[in-house]
Amino acid sequence: MVFKKLMPAICVPIVFLCSCLSVSLDDRLMSSLEVADYRIVGEVTAQIGSPHILLIRFRSNENAKKKAYEVLLEEAKRNYSGKYGHDKIDVKNIRLKGTAKPMTFWKFFYYNIPVQAKGDAVVKEENFDDNLAFSLRGMDGTIYRIVQQLILSGKTHEGSTLAILSVSSASQAFSESIISELEYNLVNTGLFKIADRRQLDEIRKERDFHTSGEVSDDSAVSIGKVLGATVVITGEFNDISKRLTIRLLDVETGQILAMFRDPP
Q: For the domain bounded by 130-262, which CATH number is listed?
């Protein structure tokens, strides 16, 4: 008799726990005002594993939102920072979807849900100047050729830590875009290490210099030592000749290792 009364209390949870459950979650949706402030430059996707106790209150789970944002932002910066700048990329309109599989006996209180996360990579309109985009056309090839010159020269040894400090130009945004593209190309060679950009940003704030301004050789060497770099890179873009010049300084000796320019 007692068993019959307990049957609903036993069976309902078992059916619930052993069934498949679909879940969804949205985060960082752009408001009508933000739609005007941001430009979508692409879509990013990632998969995250997300264990949740019985999936209770999944829709309000801040950990899932935080994890999805971090993973998608990393992917967005990997894909788009070379073109728009590392610090200019953000992710909005995040959508998470997943289906919980029936749990096994030894994972009685948990579901391990493969959650598919999607989001829009965005750049603020204030950082997206159409004139800048026009000016950057052709720069990809210029920077690629300069990096090839650097490799072929043999002036920088494999495994060296490089710190890209500044590229002087008429525009801060333009300089940062060149630096990001230069960093992207150097990393993809697989030959060099790049100094921590976050630490470099902190030094820039402390010493009050800009990526688009000129940096003296003494200052460049001093900053390179703080960053643990073996070689520091500075440059200049001449808006009249449309020529990019890159200088390499040896941190230990303070001497100029090499200079490269394109067009020649």
A: 3.40.50.10610
